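Proteins fold reproducibly. Next comes a concrete instance:

***
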Amino acid sequence: MYIPEHFRVHDHAEAIAFMRANPFAILISSAPVSSTPASLNDEGANDEGPFATHLPLFVLATDERVVLRGHVAKANPHWRYLEQNPRCLTIFHGPHAYVSASNYVTRENVPTWNYGAVHVYGSARTFAAPEELQGMLHQLIGTFEPAYAEQWASLSEAYRDRMLSHIVGIEITVTKIEAKFKLSQNRTKEEQANVIASLAKAEDTAISGVSRLMREQCLGDTKK
């Protein structure tokens, strides 16, 4: 990812926090060029080039390593591609907004787009053992809806086994993280404050979220 130095996030913990706050990610890897089974092509899969899946991910971070865990439908060919080529890119994307040039002091300026994004590189493995899938689901449930754990446990074993048989787990061992917050860091404090005030008025949380992220980064006139 292209990252001018004033937009680069150097704090590892801050990048992890952003990933956890924006867990619905895009997983990208390469599909085989010529070895894709015909049946997969019939389902609409590409037989070459990048392949992407949108999915929620659990982020496990320790001092030693970072691991992402989630699952895809067994009908999704992506897990087969990962078995053949484990290298992958996962993109965590957060709030984003159009920034009008009217926020700037001088007339000779152009609009831009502010946003936050984290690119995570790693190596994936797939798993389908029921006990491991169950453990991964407990992590996801604990993250997104802890109260659902009781309902899941109360379902019949036959139903749970059937649901597990329709998914394949994915675990990504992270090798590199690149984080970028493009938040008008290259503008004056006055202009940053103008952008923050302008975006904060929006009802769309994707837009007002940029204003919040800018404030969290201590941008703008902090005395106001």
Notes: The chain is about 35% helix and 35% strand. The mean pLDDT is 93. The longest strand covers residues 112-127. The helical segments are 12-21, 38-42, 78-84, 130-144, 148-154, 157-164, 189-200, 205-216.
